[in-house]
Amino acid sequence: MIPIKNKGEIEKIRKASRITSELLFLLGKEICPGITTLELDRIAFNFIKRKGAEPAFKGYRSYPATLCTSVNGEVVHGIPSSIELKEGDIVGIDAGVGFDHYYGDSTRTFSVGKISSEASRLLKTTREALNLGIKKAVVGNRVSDISYAIGSHVEKKGYSVVREFVGHGIGRELHEEPEIPNFGSPGQGSFLRSGMVFAIEPMVNMGKKEIKILKNGWTAVTSDGKPSAHFEDTVLIGEDGPEVLT
Ligand code: MF3
Ligand code: CO
What we know:
The protein is of the alpha+beta class. It has a single domain, classed as Creatinase/methionine aminopeptidase superfamily (Creatine Amidinohydrolase, Alpha-Beta Complex). The chain is built from four helices and 15 strands. Strand 11 and strand 12 (about 220) form a beta hairpin. Bound molecules: 2-amino-4-trifluoromethylsulfanyl-butyric acid and cobalt (II) ion. 2-amino-4-trifluoromethylsulfanyl-butyric acid binds next to strand 4.
């Protein structure tokens, strides 16, 4: 069963999501060659605490940090480290916030200084795919209409969609039903209803779709070492269409 949220619950998800998006905006201004992802993680932790909220990832299945910071060929779940970002890198910053027992979840992939035109096309395409998916998050559509909108756009641009990780329902928990793959044919899965809240999150590889998990048990990297991008928003399926909460 996909949970339907009432007005009070939606307000709390809205609050958690707002803190998440403010945080990503703040981090975006900090990102530059020379900063470490561990420094970004510390900024994020302090910001969330100052807002009276909680980092949603820290401690989740023993995850050790506030952010996931995935650099270049890292797909998702990069663990913040003392390695400095450098000119030309791309870095996916995934942030989750809990507020009053409700959750928001969002990711942006940022460029570090000047990046290659091919990397910038990857970011643009992933962002477009997310937005196309969001447009399909409307009452009467089905879950895989979102999946198809994302996957077909990515493949049309010559990139590949990661299969192993999916978008998800969110709200009372960080991960709820349904799973939202970023590929597949339209017209499948549950019908969307007003009051559902989804984290939609395409992960797009410049090269081949295959990934592997590093020995830390968390970090997914591309098998071919080529860059990968990730964008994510928390989206309310409203009476009058999708509302991006992050
Ligand atoms: N946005 C990711 C997700 O929805 C982040 C989870 S990281 C974890 O799965 F550490 F919390 F697992
Ligand atoms: Co998510």
